[in-house]
Each structure stands twice: as structure tokens, then as C-alpha cells.
Amino acid sequence: MRIERVKAEAVYPLRLEVLRPGGILADCVFAGDDDPDTVHFAAFNSEGKVEGIASFYQASHPAVHGKRLVQLRGMATHPSVRGEGYGKAIVRFALGFFAGIGGALSEKTNDVMWCNAREVAIPFYETLGFQITAEPFDIPGIGLHRVMFRHIRR
After folding, report:
1. HSE-CB of 76 using CA atoms within 13 angstroms
2. Could you tell me the fold of the domain covering 2-151?
3. Which residues pair with 111 in a beta bridge?
4. For the whole model, what pTM was predicted?
5. Of 69, 68, 129, 128, which is closest to residue 103 (Cα–Cα)?
């Protein structure tokens, strides 16, 4: 597996297949996808096929506090490889990426990665050190979510 930074267009097909099944490609274009501070990563298998994706936005949330806030959004793993570590590898890669930018970060940094986690994905995020910080809420058409966060450390 290899992970690379990609353009927004590279994440749309898997977003559509996994996150918006039955939708159209326009459903997979999120506000901020083309912002200069937004970062998209894709995990490729040995044949070069995209098996996992995630996007990271500079975005705040009232339940999350920190010096710099990075929102993880639009994460998806192809169903045929779910459970094989693609998602965890992308999040770990992104944590390293964001820990490495912004100057000399220490273990006491207050930079935070957060996400709106689907209820079924909470255990996945907990294994990566994320914690729940807000009450459940519904995203119409998608389902119940919880805001989760973790500190970004070098």
C-alpha cells in the first residue's frame, strides 16, 4: 500500500460509491475541497487502484478547542478491502503530515484533528486515539454522528 496526496477529483469516485451510493458525482463535491489549505490523501493497492481516501480541512467546531483545527471528512475505504488497514494508514499518515507542518510542534501542542463520526465508525476512531466530545446528532440522509477529536503530536 502507498499513500499519496491527491487532487480533490481523485477522491470523488470512492466518495460516491461508499458515502453517497445511488447519488451523483455532484453529491461528492464538498465545500472547501479546492481550498488551498485542504489536503486529500488516497491509499493505493499494489496495482495502483485507489482503495481508501480521506480529506482534511482547516475548520473549526464549537465543541472542539485547539490552536489549529483540522477536520477529517469524506473518509472511505472500498468495501472489498475494509478491515485491511487502509483507513488507519491514511489517518496515521495524515497525523504525521499535519504534525510536520506549522513549525516546531511539541508534545504539548494544542493542534487537534476532529471529525463527525458515523455511529458505526466510533470504534474505528477510538482505536486511533479519538475521543467523543459532543452529543449524537443526525445528518439527514446519512444518519447519527458524534463529534470526535484527537491531538496532533509529533
Report:
1. 18
2. Aminopeptidase (3.40.630)
3. 68
4. 0.89
5. 68
